[in-house]
Amino acid sequence: MFTGIVEELGEIVAIEHLGDASRFQVRGPVVTEGAKHGDSIAVNGVCLTVVDIVEDAEGTRFSADVMAETLNRSGLGALDIGSRVNLERPMALGGRLGGHIVQGHVDGTGAIVDRELSEHWEIVKISLPAELSRYVVEKGSITVDGISLTVVDAGPDYFTVSLIPTTLALTTLGVKQAGDPVNLEVDVLAKYVERLLGRDNGTQDKEATS
Q1: What is the pLDDT of residue 209?
Q2: CA 81 from centre of chain
Q3: Could you give the 3-state DSSP secondary structure of residue 17?
């Protein structure tokens, strides 16, 4: 489990295409400290499994295999060598939940619509797939490229977020422009509530007709 608090901006240093999958090499000295084969690291909000760790003169990098389902559902397939990515290690047991509960399972992708610069922050409008809009509410939580953010305004096919200088400086949202894709993960608690309410309604309907 992650919290959506980005630890560092990493860089894609190599991509090996393997037919229905790809192997990424990602440079990130902070998240690779103490990491080993089989550990998890979130890359732009996608939970990936470390295959190996390599150290060289330019720093430490890790490799991870990305299957076709992940490439199709997320924006990882659009990354190139040199792309900057948000990196986060899983939350340690007993650690502080600085953002919100993030699984690293991307629900879909949106795109930057526009950016409105204010004196001390920036308002960013992001498109939202229609099937995800029911999970996004004003003042609720959403994960954008692995960043835990609070929704300012929620529309039928978009939402807005306010970005403080720290977020702009330390994550990919500081450089992404209109049209750039972003990975979206909605609040998993909303999905569980929907499922439970759906089951309750189904049971009640069945009892009423029996």
Answers
A1: 44
A2: 19
A3: strand
pLDDT for position 107: 94
For residue 168, which of 140, 149, 188, 194 has the smallest C-alpha distance?
Answer: 149
pLDDT tens-place string over residues 92-135: 777 777 778 888 999 999 999 999 988 788 999 999 999 999 99
**DSSP string covering 179-192:** T-EEEEEE-HHHHH
More confident residue, 96 or 46: 46
3, 78, 89, 125, 197 from 162: Cα distances, Å: 18, 25, 24, 9, 31
**How many CB atoms lie under 10 A from the CB of residue 51?**
14
Residues 149-170: what's their mean pLDDT?
95
Q: Name the residue among 177, 121, 173 with its Cα closest to residue 4.
A: 173
Q: Which of 105, 184, 183 is nearest to 142 (CA)?
A: 184
Question: Which one, of 163, 192, 40, 193, lies nearest residue 104 by Cα?
Answer: 40
Q: What gap in Å lies between CA 210 and CA 194, rounded to an integer?
A: 25
